[in-house]
UniProtKB/TrEMBL annotation:
SUPFAM superfamilies in alphabetical order: Cytochrome c
Domain Cytochrome c: 104-204
One Pfam family, short name: PSCyt1
Coiled-coil zones: 48-82
Keywords: Coiled coil, Heme, Iron, Metal-binding
Protein name per UniProt: Cytochrome c domain-containing protein
Keyword Coiled coil (UniProt): yes
Keyword field contains Metal-binding: yes
Gene Ontology terms for molecular function: electron transfer activity; heme binding; metal ion binding
InterPro entries the record matches: Cyt_c-like_dom, Cyt_c-like_dom_sf, Cyt_c_Planctomycete-type
Length: 638
């Protein structure tokens, strides 16, 4: 219960807190100095009174000193750094401690203050808006007693047994509106300040067993603090997984009304720990007993109000069955940290896809590739005929060209895959899960329709093919326009076109963020090697790259290694010349390491430094010089 009158030991600490943070004032007059000296003498008499067991007289002496000091500080507007104020503050602290010891920490027989019943409602009501999980102003969170103990960027809030030294009291009781908390709000009442000061003076005890219970819940149901939250770890033998089967619905269906910002009924489902803490009505989960679990009864419509209110679309029969089984099995936790947000624990869409794909057999993978590839074709030509299909050990080749042409593409692909295995020392069988699909379009219209339907994009005429391989390989294909076999300055011929984009798909199969210039350039460089330098299309690439560099707006030469610096039409020539330069500059060893660093997730600068042991800017400058045109620099602003 809250104290109805201010105990002396607490009262003096409150005076110190009230006036210790003053940041203005004038020099003391002679009369004020005499008054301060007399107050100091009176405070010094307290220890003598206590030594003679005159506790009541000691309390009265401190009370009188408190009233006189309060008037003096108010009249003089003493500053926080006034040495005479600092000295008497220390005297008050010493005598208050002595009085607290003499009375067992309860001066004047003051009733004990309960954190759960008395302090938590004040902090939740006055401080919660600025110091919750979302805002945490000053790095301070006042969600629970546990976070109160931690403090914020300014340090610990509490000095148990010493209110005037506690930052919490100094901020709450400051007479300076610029320093007082809550900022821009009504100051705490004298009764509220007395309550908090008395609690700190008593040692800032927590009258419960579960320090993580939110202050807002304690405000409604103080008894929650006494109920220990037990979190039992899953053994792995359970039929239902909390993380996989329960948490997604909690987050996506229930989380809108039961999160840290909006605790409907005092219940937050933001973390597993908060799920088990419960809400205003108490615990909502009783492990092993679904019929005694309020959450189950509300979701299952056994109690009212039925949850979730107004929208039951996210509550499936499977979820209801899983929820009941999970509670029956003991409501166990199979996550890494019960305090971690559930949103961070639940599998992402990509995780769920990967988990599903991991269960496929090689035969099922191939069937999936056939089905998915036909679906992409139908999406491109919804009114058209089914594609011709030819399969090889590594490829599913399909298109609207002749079966003989598809077989030719498959043979080129198989021959090139063998070279890639040797070049990169890859022994995986097969190279792609479910094979790599190669779409072959007889004309420009088909290739552009595919890009428009599948990728929602337009492509410049200079782009004759591309590849797309996801990390999980649930999608893995190359798409090329059949540009005929005769090469020209604007066309490499179909064989080199296939080689370029099969190489790109090969490089993407291990994931990572490979830049377009690397995948396109590597494919073209390998294709150039196969042509023996006689292909007129390859011969034009160096001049096109030089022109692309001249018209670029790259300010820092090292940016040439970053993805997205060049248009789709320019990235092929730039990539070819850049890969050719890197291979000649360091050989296949550093280049292979560069590819691996990109696949591991390194950014361009880090990958270059690791693979070539040089500064990216220096390497880029050497590249520009080799091409014959340095990247244009942005003009400095005046």
């Amino acid at each position: 219960m809250r104290p109805t009158s201010l105990p002396l030991a607490v009262g003096l600490a409150l005076v110190v807190a009230l006036f210790g943070a003053l940041s203005w004032g004038a020099p003391l007059t002679s009369a004020q100095k005499r008054e301060l000296s007399e107050i100091t003498d009176d405070v010094g008499k307290v220890r003598s009174l206590l030594s003679r067991k005159k506790v009541e007289e000691a309390e009265q002496a401190l009370k009188d000193a408190e009233e006189r000091l309060q008037k003096l500080v108010s009249d003089a507007q003493l500053m926080d750094d006034d040495r005479q104020l600092l000295a008497i503050r220390r005297q008050f602290e010493l005598q208050r401690s002595a009085l607290a010891k003499a009375t067992g920490g309860k001066a004047g027989g003051a009733p004990a203050v309960s954190f759960a019943k008395d302090v938590a409602p004040i902090l939740a009501g006055k401080c919660g808006n600025c110091h919750d999980a979302d805002r945490a102003s000053g790095g301070l969170r006042l969600e629970s007693y546990a976070t109160l103990e931690v403090g914020g960027r300014s340090g610990p809030l509490l000095v148990p047994g010493n209110p005037n030294a506690s930052l919490l009291m100094q901020r709450l009781a400051s007479p300076n509106p610029m320093a007082r908390m809550p900022r821009n709000g009504q100051p705490l009442s004298q009764d509220e300040l007395r309550t908090i000061a008395a609690w700190i003076a008593a040692g800032a005890p927590f009258d419960g067993t579960e320090k993580t219970v939110s202050l807002s819940l304690l405000t409604v149901n103080p008894d929650l603090a006494k109920e220990k939250v037990v979190i039992e770890k899953a053994t792995g033998n359970e039929k239902v997984s909390f993380v996989r089967d329960i948490a997604p619905t909690f987050v996506n269906t229930c989380g809108g009304c039961h999160n840290d910002a909006q605790r409907r009924g005092g219940l937050s489902l933001a973390t597993f720990e908060k799920v088990m803490v419960g809400g205003e009505s108490g615990r909502v989960i009783t492990p092993g007993k679904p019929e005694e679990s309020r959450l189950w009864r509300l979701v299952n419509a056994d109690d009212t109000p039925v949850m979730p209110q107004g929208n039951m679309t996210g509550i499936t029969r499977k979820f209801l069955a899983d929820l009941r089984t999970w509670i029956t099995e003991g409501a166990k936790f199979d996550g890494s940290d019960a305090k971690r947000p559930l949103r961070d624990l639940i599998p992402s869409e990509a995780d769920l896809v990967a988990e599903k794909l991991a269960k496929l057999t090689p035969e099922q993978w191939v069937e999936k590739r056939r089905t998915d590839s036909k679906e992409l074709w139908r999406r491109t030509f919804p009114q058209g005929a089914e594609p011709q299909i030819v399969e090889t050990p590594e490829f599913l080749v399909l298109g609207d060209v002749s079966a003989r042409r598809l077989e030719q593409v498959g043979d080129w692909g198989q021959e090139h895959i063998a070279a890639l295995r040797t070049m990169f020392n890859v022994k995986d069988e097969p190279l792609f899960k479910g094979k790599l699909a190669i779409f072959v379009f007889k004309d420009r219209f088909g290739y552009e329709e595919f890009n428009s339907s599948v990728h929602r994009r337009q492509v410049p005429r200079e782009v004759l093919g591309h590849s797309d391989v996801t990390t999980a390989q649930d999608q893995a294909f190359a798409a090329v326009e059949d540009i005929g076999d005769e090469a020209s300055p604007t066309s490499p011929g179909l064989q080199l076109n296939v080689i370029e984009h099969v190489t790109g798909a090969f490089l993407k199969r291990d994931g990572g963020g490979l830049p377009d210039w690397l995948t396109r350039g590597t494919g073209l460089a390998i294709a150039a090697g196969k042509s023996g330098g006689a292909n007129p299309y390859i011969g034009e690439l160096r001049g096109l790259a030089a022109e692309a560099l001249r018209k670029s707006n790259i300010a820092n030469p090292a940016d040439v290694f970053n993805d997205g610096q060049f248009s789709p039409a320019d990235v092929g020539p730039i990539g070819y010349v850049l890969v050719d330069f890197l291979l000649k500059h360091g050989g296949p060893g550093p280049f292979g390491q560069l590819v691996r660093r990109f696949q591991a997730g390194d950014n361009a600068a880090s990958a270059i430094r690791t693979a070539y042991r040089t500064d990216p800017r220096q390497l880029a400058t050497a590249f520009a010089a080799a091409v014959g045109s340095a990247p244009a620099r942005s003009k400095k602003k005046n």
